[in-house]
Write a structure and sequence with these properties.
This protein has a three-stranded antiparallel sheet with strand order 3-4-5, with no helix packed on it. Strands 1-2 form a two-stranded antiparallel sheet. The chain has one domain (12-114). Helix content is 23%, strand content 24%. The chain has 115 residues and is an alpha+beta fold.
Length: 115
């Protein structure tokens, strides 16, 4: 579903049918230590870009909204983890390095098809 920011995200939900006004981020709702989500948080939210760049079925994403310094502003903290190897992923856009090492090299496959 399209977020208020205009990007597609599978965790965003909106219902405006028949006078309802319900918007929520189902990823942030799962987190217990997170402050309330607001539609304006989607502009600072990296999850739609991560989902677009990385389609791994082993990717586990967690997001929390935290108050900024001295309570001013808001920060969205996103952490990613590989469920298959149980490791934290440092670059969520690239994915798990161990999962990538297990797959055959795409460049070698392209060269073989050309022959």
């Amino acid at each position: 579903m399209k977020t208020p920011d205009g990007r597609s995200c599978k965790y965003y939900y909106a219902d405006f049918n028949r006078g309802r006004n319900r918007q929520e981020c189902r990823l942030i709702l799962r987190e217990t230590g997170s402050t309330g989500w607001r539609p304006a948080d989607c502009a600072r939210y990296a999850v739609p870009d991560i989902l677009w760049a990385n389609a791994s079925e082993n990717l586990e994403i967690r997001a929390r909204v935290k108050p900024g310094f001295l309570g001013f502003g808001r920060n969205v903290d996103v952490t990613t983890r590989c469920k298959k190897h149980s490791i934290n992923i440092t670059d969520p856009y690239g994915g798990c390095e161990q999962c990538a090492a297990e797959r055959p090299n795409l460049a070698d496959l392209i060269v073989q098809e050309d022959k």
